Amino acid sequence: MTTPPPAPELTPPRATPPPTRPASPLPGVEVTPTWRMSRLAVRLAVFGALALVAGIVAARPEPVLVAAPCLVALVVALRRPRPETVRVEAALSEPRSFEDEDVEVHVVVRAEEVLGEIGLDLALPRTFEVDGQRACREFEVRSVSHTWTVRARRWGRWRAGPLRLRVRSRGWGYVGTATLSLAELTVFPPPSAVREVAVPPRLLARVGSHVARRAGPGVEFAGIRTYAPGDPVRRVNWPVSTRRDELYVNEYAAERAADVVAVVDTTVDLGPFGRSSLDLAVRGAATVVQAYLRYADRVGVVTLGGALRWLAPDVGTRQYYRIVETLLASRVDESYLEPDVAHFPPQALPPGALAFVFTPLVDARAAEAVRDLRERGHPVIVVDVLSAEPEPSPREPDSELAVRVWRLEREVLLHSLAEMGVTVLSWDEEVGIALDRVRLEPLMGGAR
């Protein structure tokens, strides 16, 4: 059975903006700095006061002559005007990006009068990288414009900030500070590189890109049969008909679509930062969603753990961004509810839908959810996203034995899932999930 070439891949957000809220730059925000005496002014005041007191006590003019320039410079510096507000404009070049994509953070600071110094310091989460220095300083200017090029290494919703503003009045008598929150940046998992997918065992009675086993309208040759009244003339196989003295027509395999649901286990998050089980699960789910949407299949998502989140299967580029937004919300979910697949809304898991379950297989409830899916007649593919096994502790004498028992229990669990007809895949560090290597025909006894 051959697979037709996939449709053009989904375009990134720059070409087709996802249906989410627009960018939220800070156009012309008036910021009121918190002004205080600078360290230089404090030192001049302290030194001048001590020298003046020393001259008075010692009744000598030398300390007074030393204190006079310091006090005069202090008075001149403190009398310099300072603006009450500073205008700050900050914006992101893109409100959404994929992992490791460059995003520009542009900041413009304007004051009503010349300032002694304008300093900008961009604080970033540890998931971000920046080209060049994070701090910018300009002296004796009225406005400053600076652009940082940053990139996010991890999916999620992040703020490229806060932005710390530091200004000084002319003469450096006063220093003002302020902190601003920048716009939120939505970082999507990396785009999928998968070009071929596993054909689900059960296909819908809807035109799609998968080749079914039954005859119907399509382009894949399936065989020949005798002519029946109503068959189009263009399907007549003239060489065979000439040899057999009877009309024969070509049959073609029907092209049908499928329902696919990505189930993400969020009950636990194990593993190193950036490569944890939740990170791999979200990236794998995004790969499955993007790959099957290229074939015009209906794709949905269900998240287990915390608040039950689900999105009914649908088609189109818009559905991809809706699913990713649902997955991004799983990280900030602080509630806890026991997952129960048996009580999912019917729209979340249509009958016969192919289910991809991304789980580390640590929580027993996730395994029960897989069993329940299989008992309800769904072909299930479990992707094991456990990236790190527990290490035995040298302080505990029985820790090594406990790890060995855990591994044996895990092997028993995987064997029981395989006996139920569940395909179990391990996460590949190079390709992630190899959808083209999965064969699902034995699971359900044949496709329609």
Would you give an account of this structure?
The chain has 448 residues and is of the alpha/beta class. The chain has eight helices and 19 strands. The strands form four sheets. Strands 1, 2, 3, 5, 6, 7, 9 and 10 form an eight-stranded antiparallel β-sheet that branches. The protein has a six-stranded mixed β-sheet with strand order 16-15-14-17-18-19, with helices on both faces. α4 (277-293) packs antiparallel against α5. It starts with 25 loop residues before the first strand and ends with a helix. Residues 1-25 and 441-448 have low confidence and may be disordered. Residues 1-25 have a biased composition (Pro residues). It holds the Pfam family DUF58.
Any descriptors?
single chain, Immunoglobulin-like, disordered N terminus, alpha/beta, 448 residues, elongated, 33% strand, disordered C terminus
Write the layout of secondary structure elements.
Elements: E1 26-31, E2 34-37, H1 39-58, H2 61-79, E3 86-92, E4 96-98, E5 102-122, E6 128-130, E7 135-152, E8 156-159, E9 163-168, E10 174-180, E11 184-188, E12 207-226, H3 238-244, E13 248-256, E14 259-265, H4 277-293, E15 298-304, E16 309-314, H5 317-328, E17 354-359, H6 364-375, E18 380-384, H7 399-419, E19 423-426, H8 441-444
Parallel strand pairs: 4-11, 14-15, 14-17, 17-18, 18-19
Antiparallel strand pairs: 1-3, 2-10, 3-5, 5-7, 5-9, 6-7, 8-11, 9-10, 12-13, 15-16
InterPro entries: DUF58 (IPR002881)
Domain DUF58: 224-386
Region (Disordered): 1-29
